[in-house]
Amino acid sequence: MNNDFLTIAGKQYRSRLLVGSGKYRDLNETREATFAAEAEIVTVAIRRVNIGQDPNAPSLLDVLPPKDFTILPNTAGCYNARDAVYTLQMARELLDGHKLVKLEVLGDEKTLFPHMPETLKAAETLVRDGFDVMVYCSDDPIQARILQEIGCIAVMPLASLIGSGMGILNPWNLSLIIEEAKVPVLVDAGVGTASDAAIAMELGCDGVLMNTAIAAAREPVRMARAMKLAVQAGREAYLAGRMPKRFAASPSSPREGRIT
User: How many whole angstroms from its chain centre is CA 16?
Assistant: First the structure.
């Protein structure tokens, strides 16, 4: 595992667990959970979390400084391409020309499902404007392929609805996306507990992004540690290659060669 890096926009990361920065009780808990997860990439909702927009309020960057973490601005709360593009252009200014961003354009407030026509439109504009775009998308292999063709550097299909904790509802679609992908595939949204993260990694995902699963746990810092271990275990299992499934029993101690 020492040389098993996740590569995003040309930079290598040891951790394949990406975490959000919202929904915690306070910035101190955000920091503690992020460190417990050993995450290196932290996503930030520019419309909800202060990273300098309000100079008179505490900033996330005070507890998670960019020199120690890759800050990944996202467009949570945007429902059209125009607002998403504007939000990330603002983030680039706040973060001194930062290019790596996470695009998400939502369809409605009830499901928070990705609005794919607006997502595609925003992705084209952002890539043309020089951004490195990681993109939240539906678990549709065709849409994922189009986003890659546009030039997105990572596709992030949902496992289930944002904040639902329902886990991976359609592993077959994820497998199709992974099989075709020429860029990293990271599950984004719907993870509820450690086993969900492990399953995503066992399927062959390159990483997992989560927020609510950690922040809404009874003990967020402990859950962050559990998620770190689950992602590591799932990755190891994927690399090891699981045994084939059989419809008949196969004894651990075969009859041949027994000591009599």
Answer: 9
For residue 136, give the nearest of 120, 152, 158, 121 by alpha carbon. Answer: 158
Residue type, 109: E
Dist CA 257 CA 260 (whole Å): 9
d(CA 247, CA 29): 47
User: Encoding tokens for residue 20?
Assistant: 């959000």
Average of pLDDT values for 137-160?
A: 97
Cα angle, residue 189 at apex, residues 240 and 150 outer, rounded to 5°? 85
The residue count of the chain comes to 260
Write the DSSP symbol of residue 61.
G
Single pTM value for the model: 0.91
The residues that are catalytic are 102
| Helical (H) or strand (E) element with 177 | helix 171-180
Nearest-angstrom CA–CA distance, 233 and 54:
40
Nearest Cα residue to 46 out of 81, 86, 74: 74
Statement: residue 71 has pLDDT above 60? yes
CB atoms within 10 A of CB 7: 13
Please say whether the beta carbons of 233 and 198 come within 8 A: yes
CA distance 187 to 48: 22
Amino acid letter, 7: T
